[in-house]
Amino acid sequence: MLIEDILGPVEGMKVLILDDFTTRMIANIMRMSELSTLYNIASVQYVTSVPTGRRGDFSAVYFMMPTEPNIKKYIDDFSLNPCPYSKGYIFLTNTCPDSLFTMLKKARSPVKKLKGFEELYCEYICYSENAFSLEDPSHFNLHFNPKKVHERGYLNMKIAAKLVTICVQMKHYPSQIRYFGTGCGTANNEIATHFKRSLSHFKLENSNFHWKSVNSTLLIVDRGFDTITPVIHDLTTEALARDFLGIDVEGNADQKDRRESYCPNQYVYTVKTGADSEKIERRAFLDDSNFLWSKIRFMNIKEAVNFMRSEIDALQNQEQLEHGKVKDLDLTKLNQMMKMYPEQQKKKAQIGALSYVLDATLQSFAREQIECEQTLATNCSKKPKEGRNWKLVSELLKKDAKGELNNALTIHEKIRLLILYARSKATVNGLSLRELKSRMLECDVTVEYLTIITNLCYMGVPILNQDSQWENYEDQARDWRLWPVADKDTGGKTVRPDQMPEFIKWCPTIYHLVKTMIESPKDMLDRYPLIEIRNRPVVKRKRRKKSRSKRSLRSQRTVTTAESSYKYVYDCNDYEFLEREFKSSFIVFVAGGLTYGEIKLAKILTDLYKGNQEVAVIFGSTQILNPDDFIEKLHNLNPDEPKYKGEDKQFVVAESNYYDRK
């Protein structure tokens, strides 16, 4: 376990110093209160904080990224007189550059107190046992902004190196690399090329590394391959809760009009207690430390509600049973019951917190809105001149104006409807600028948000009929029933991979894409080119003993043995995914963001192929996206360049008084 390897060998009381990235990593694994109790942590400090006073025999454990400010922080802390800590330990998330290593070596006093130095190779965060994130929100703008093409090279090289780290941790050697070749295919090809080079470099330096499989596949796509899933409401419990309640959403403070919480993986709510109805603030933790949340997070919202009702009924029955028999129990059984009491109280608190989360989610839920999105996403109207698609949107807007929906539509939700309409078959050759502005006027969306919709062209998705991409554009497949590979067990009929209500017609493209590539590897080579890696390593039968990669502070030499210090990061609860035996793996990396609704599909696909094929399906991305995040990133993609001219030959951004004239 990662935390055990860092804090376990350090004896006595400790002070844990973290930077921004490692703070998010630790918080995703364990709560800080549990960390303090289990590992004798006196305090947890941020890397920019100044140590106050002398802490006697306390040891300082620095877990941080290998950057110049972080290394200087350690040197400055241990250069103080008197020194605030007795010992120092440094754990880095990746390889320390030689320049920083030399700088640390020259600091004599801090080096004397340095008792441990290790590179852990774990620059990513796990969101589930089948999904990871590189936590790089800035990548979206760099990947799709045409003005920043010159800045992509170094970033793509870093991403490729991190993907190699993940393959090494799984010990699955990718023999095939496929990438999304349309839209921003050049950037995807760059990542694939850098990955191949980094993997070959690792193989040469670690010729004795024990690979479990050499038949794995890496698929590199960007968010442009599916721009419908990020704007649609997914009925998965986690996706819907984070969408409606604004949990862990990046964006401006003025956009949080109906969000009651703005804390990572937490939902803040208030309850009334006592006779005077005093309000008390409480928090629901939506991470894997909450075992009930880990059970319902991938259920659809209806199943989650039924599951929580059954848990509440079981808890009430247990309490009634124990209350009736407590008088007849002897001291031994009473003692056993008292030991179980804290665990029952903890479960009771979790049930109560999640009940508030589900209740707040359902209060924001409007079936009419979901059905309208589903119809637009699956293109019910295939005739360009038929106005049925917009009629559905206008009917929804009328209900919103009359207050018939559970919650009023926000600006972002109206923009999402406009994007879905613009992507529908009713606009098979694109919209005119005049029509798009009139649709925005009907939705009561100001012209300043126009670039959110038109910026989709930078992702390879044309919207206006002026776009030059229509000639070579191929729309993504919409109906999941029409995909070429059908389930053999159902007589050739396709079935939904997840259990959803009947009115849910849309299924994310990533599911069909992976399923098609696993069952028919030679399909879609025109859109997803193939790079084969030759000279595969030999799979060795015997498992060799692990040894860590240690770096000597007396010399600049790195001592690397057969299996270097790559570590498993799946620490919390049941995260033993990388230790499970699979014949191969299919890793999908989405540059630009992965949605919460797509994360659950990795587990569904793994369960689907865990029989004879034994394929482990893992989804990864530069970050995990909410719909609001996606809208904000589109808005900020290229705000300074007016791309389109209207019928009056004036740029769109210059027509701020358009609605005033109306």
Helix tally equals 22
Briefly note the CATH topology name of the largest domain. Answer: Rossmann fold
**Structural class of the secondary structure composition?**
alpha/beta
What percentage of residues falls in helices of 4 or more residues?
25-40%
**pLDDT below 50 for ≥5 consecutive residues: which ranges?**
249-262, 542-579, 642-662
- Shape type: globular
In angstroms, what is the radius of gyration? 27 Å
Total number of beta strands: 18
Mean pLDDT: 77
Q: What share of residues are in beta strands?
A: 5-15%
What does this structure look like?
The chain has 662 residues and is an alpha/beta fold. It has four domains: 2-119, Sec1/Munc18 (SM) protein, domain 1 (Rossmann fold), CATH 3.40.50; 125-228 and 506-544 and 575-635, Rossmann fold, CATH 3.40.50.1910; 259-363, no CATH class; 367-479 and 639-661, Alpha Horseshoe (Serine Threonine Protein Phosphatase 5, Tetratricopeptide repeat). It has 22 helices and 18 strands. Strand 8 (172-179), helix 9 and strand 9 form a beta-alpha-beta unit. The longest helix is centred in the middle third of the chain and has 33 residues, at 331-363. Residues 249-262, 542-579 and 642-662 have low confidence and may be disordered.
